[in-house]
Amino acid sequence: MNSARTDDENRVVPDDLDLLLQLTEYTDDSLWMFTPDWENVIFANSTYEDIFGEPVASLEADPTSFLDAVHPDDRERVADGMEQLSAGESTDLEFRVDPAEDYGTWVWVQGKPVVDEAGEVTALAGYTRDITRRKEYQRELEHHREALEKSNESLREFAYIASHDLQEPLRMVSSYVDLLEREYGDQFDDEAEEYMEFAVNGAKRMKRMINSLLEYSRVHTQAEEFDEVDAAEVFESARQDLELLIADHSAEITVGDLPTVSADRDQLGQVFQNLVKNAVEHAEKDGTPRIDVTATDRPDAYEFAVSDNGPGIPADEQDDVFEIFRQGANAEAGNTGIGLAITRRIVQRHGGEIWIESEQGEGAAFKFTIPKGLNVAESEGVDHE
C-alpha cells in the first residue's frame, strides 16, 4: 500500500512516486511531458493509447510519431503548435486523430512550456482530451441553427404574403360588400340581408385569422433577446391589460410569489395574458371565475400554473387546445382560437414545456416551465412543432 503525509495546511501529500503515477491513470485525458526538442518522452499516461490508437511504447520510441495519427489536413497546424511550444509559448489546438477510425476522433490539446528560474524552457507539458462528443453536439447545434434559419425565413415570407398579398384582396372583398349594402341594401329581402350578413362576417373573420397567423409567425421573427425579468411585475402588467375583461366577468384572481426568470418580457406577458383570458372566457356562465396563479421552484426550471374553477377539459381534448384555430366554445365571440397555440410557441421558444392538468367539472390548470440559466443561444433552438 502506498503511503502519504499531510502538509502544513493538512492537505494530503503523496510521498510515493508510484502513487502519483497511479493518479494519472484516473483521468480520461492523455497527460504528457516532452523534452523541449521533442526528442524524448518524459512522461505519457496510458490514455494516449485510447485516444491516438497507438501504444505508448511507439511514442517513446519516436516522440513525434503521434503526428502520423493526425489527420493530414490538420498535421501542419499541429507541427506549428509544437514549434510554438518549443519557443516558450502556450498552445491551444483542436484537431482530428486516429486513422483506424477514419480520423473520427476530435481532440483538444492544451500545452505549456515548463521554464526554470532563468526562464529557459526545460520541458513541454500538457494534456490531450477527447472532445468527439462535444463536436458532435456542436454539429447538431449547427444543424438545428440552420433549420431554424430556414424556418424563420419561411415565416418571414409568410408574414409578407399575409400582410400584403392576402390583405389586399380581402380589403377589396370587404369594400365591395360594404358598397353593395350601402347602394342596394334597401332593395334586399330578408333572405338577401341574411346572405349579406354571412358575407360581412366571413370577411371579418378571415381578417382576424390572417392577423392571428401574423402574430403566430412573429413569435420568432420579431422576438426580443432574453433578460432577467420579474415575473410578478410582468404578470401585474398583463392583468392590467385585461382589466375590462376581468371586471366584465367579475373574475377573482389570486397570485402567489413569482420568481425572476430569464425571458423575453413581452412574450412572457403575452403567455400570462393568454392563459388568464382563456380562463376567464371559459368560466362557467353561472359562476364567478376564480383564477389562481402560482410558481414552483424546480431543480432545473420554474413551473408556473394558471388554475381556474371552470368546467375543465376532457382528457381526449387537452392536446387539441394548443392547435392553431381550435374554435372552442367562444368561436362565436370572435375568438380565432390561436391564443393557446401562440402561448405554446412562446414557451417552446424559451425551451420550456406547457401542458394541462384537468378533470371535467373540476377546473383546469395550465402549467408551463421556464428553464433556469437560459441564454439567447439556447433559446434559439429548433421549433419543436
What does this structure look like?
The chain contains eleven helices and 14 strands. With 385 residues, the protein is of the alpha+beta class. The chain has a five-stranded antiparallel beta sheet with strand order 4-3-7-6-5, with helices on both faces. Strands 9-11-12-14-13 form a five-stranded mixed beta sheet. A two-stranded antiparallel ribbon has the order 1-2. Helix 7 (231-241) packs across helix 9. The longest helix has 53 residues, at 132-184. The radius of gyration is 33 Å and the shape is elongated. The chain starts with a strand and ends in a 6-residue tail after the last helix. The model is unreliable at 328-333 and 376-385 (pLDDT under 50).
Sheet with the most strands, sense and barrel status: 5 strands, antiparallel
Number of strands: 14
Q: CA-to-CA gap between the ends?
A: 59 Å
- Report helical residue fraction: 40-55%
Spatial arrangement of strands, main beta sheet: 4-3-7-6-5
Cα-atom Rg, whole angstroms?
A: 33 Å
Structural class computed from helices and strand pairing: alpha+beta
> What is the number of helical segments per DSSP (H or I, 4+ residues)?
11
Low-confidence stretches: 328-333, 376-385
Percentage beta strand: 15-25%
Multimeric state of these chains? single chain
Determine the mean pLDDT: 85
Anisotropy-based shape = elongated
How would you spell out the order of helices and strands?
A: EEHEEHHHEEEHHEHHEEHEEHEEH
